[in-house]
Amino acid sequence: MKKFIETVKNIWSIEELRNKILITLSFMVIYRFAAQVTLPGLDGKVIADAMNNKATGGNGIVDIINMFTGGGFSRASVMALGVMPYISASIVVQLMGIAIPYLQKLQKDGESGRKKITQITRWLTIAITLVQGPAYLASLPSLGIPANAFMLGQGGMFWITSMVLLTTGSIFAMWLGEKITDKGIGNGISLLIMIGIIAGFPSSFAQEFLSKTNTGGAGGIMMILIEIIVWLAVILACVYLVTAIRKVAVQYARKTVAGTVRDVAGARQYIPLKLNSAGVMPIIFAQAIMFVPSALTSASFTSDGVKRIAGYFSDFTGVGYNVLFAVLIIVFSYFYTAITIPTNKMADDLKRSGGFIPGIRPGKETGDLLDRILSLITFPGSIFLALLAILPAFVVKFGVQQNWAMFYGGTSLLIMVGVAIDTIQQINSHLLNRHYDGLMKTGSKRKSVA
């Protein structure tokens, strides 16, 4: 503990790192403050009372969206859509980069190409917001917003002003994320999503605690302790999933060390291939498809037979929903890994740098080997990812409230763990550059080597 405190002091003593952390915290506070502002024409107090009186464990899909926006989605906030349109636009641009030569060229143009892709993503974010905004406003009554909350009705003026503010809110959230990435400690969009998820943690745990400890509650304090232990075990499993890698040994026949006249013969390194190279993207893709059955059940043009089938696959805790959800995650894990990990390019880069995998010819054979290894490790990684994604549904079956169960797996927990690890690595890099030990090691100042 003493070493940890000393490390925190070292972090605060580095002016550049201190400023980055303060900027990041300031922007996160601004984002959370904006998420509390209700759309004009709506009575925030009436909405808050309706949300408080609403029974826990409602629509699972809506709860998931609401978690990503820090409660702004169900509160009808100006940040109700948050960074979700930007994430959708980023995914679309990334997928379009596979098929559109112009985007492929921009990806290879370095910094100038990256700026153009960023600009395309921004404009696409606005377009997506203009589509999602009206759909969101039309669904406000079904989200539990009572009729008396609309102080000025739902006329044209309400729609125009709300659309302007929803679009502005998404653009503002995108701008905050980019500023955190540029001026703060990085991962701006991910940090905004994480802070929105964490915002619902205290109330969810408090509701679960009260339900177990109040008179007539099942389990009492002992059950709460068991739930916390299981939750920590799931977090540990997430950490292993995020950090697990398969090391592929690489050897360099001859390598000149810069600044010296000696050569290193047979220098040995490795290529790290992640067990879960796709991250949380397969869950995001799968959830996007799982929204379809829910939409069909509420659509007026859907027949009764289709509604029954769609209802079977839209139950968050149902067998059909979770089996289909798990299968989609496994499929998208392979799909996203295949399009984002260019094994042939890795093999070509390795060949140009004079490296090779022992016993394997450089070039095509190396690329085939890397592709085969990646396919083999993606299978257990995708299975593990699917189990984590559907774990909240199993937890609910054991009597845990749905809002608290959301923190037992799925996208929310993986995002929190992944962003936390990335942030620690960013801080570690600053400490090591200033000759301090990393955050997870000791807090002593390291001697610089001349």
TrEMBL record:
InterPro entries attached to this UniProt entry: SecY (IPR026593), SecY/SEC61-alpha (IPR002208), SecY_CS (IPR030659), SecY_dom_sf (IPR023201)
Transmembrane segments annotated in the record for this chain: 21-39, 83-103, 123-145, 157-177, 184-201, 221-245, 278-299, 319-341, 373-394, 406-424
Oligomer status and interactors: Component of the Sec protein translocase complex. Heterotrimer consisting of SecY, SecE and SecG subunits. The heterotrimers can form oligomers, although 1 heterotrimer is thought to be able to translocate proteins. Interacts with the ribosome. Interacts with SecDF, and other proteins may be involved. Interacts with SecA.
Record's GO cellular component terms: plasma membrane
Species this protein is from: Urechidicola croceus
Keyword Transmembrane: yes
Record's keyword terms, sorted: Cell membrane, Membrane, Protein transport, Translocation, Transmembrane, Transmembrane helix, Transport
Bilayer topology annotation: Multi-pass membrane protein
Family: Belongs to the SecY/SEC61-alpha family.
PROSITE patterns given in the database record: SECY_1, SECY_2
Summary of the function given for this chain in its UniProt record: The central subunit of the protein translocation channel SecYEG. Consists of two halves formed by TMs 1-5 and 6-10. These two domains form a lateral gate at the front which open onto the bilayer between TMs 2 and 7, and are clamped together by SecE at the back. The channel is closed by both a pore ring composed of hydrophobic SecY resides and a short helix (helix 2A) on the extracellular side of the membrane which forms a plug. The plug probably moves laterally to allow the channel to open. The ring and the pore may move independently.
Designated gene of the protein: secY
Protein location: Cell membrane; Membrane
Protein name, as recorded: Protein translocase subunit SecY
Gene Ontology biological process: intracellular protein transmembrane transport; protein targeting; protein transport by the Sec complex
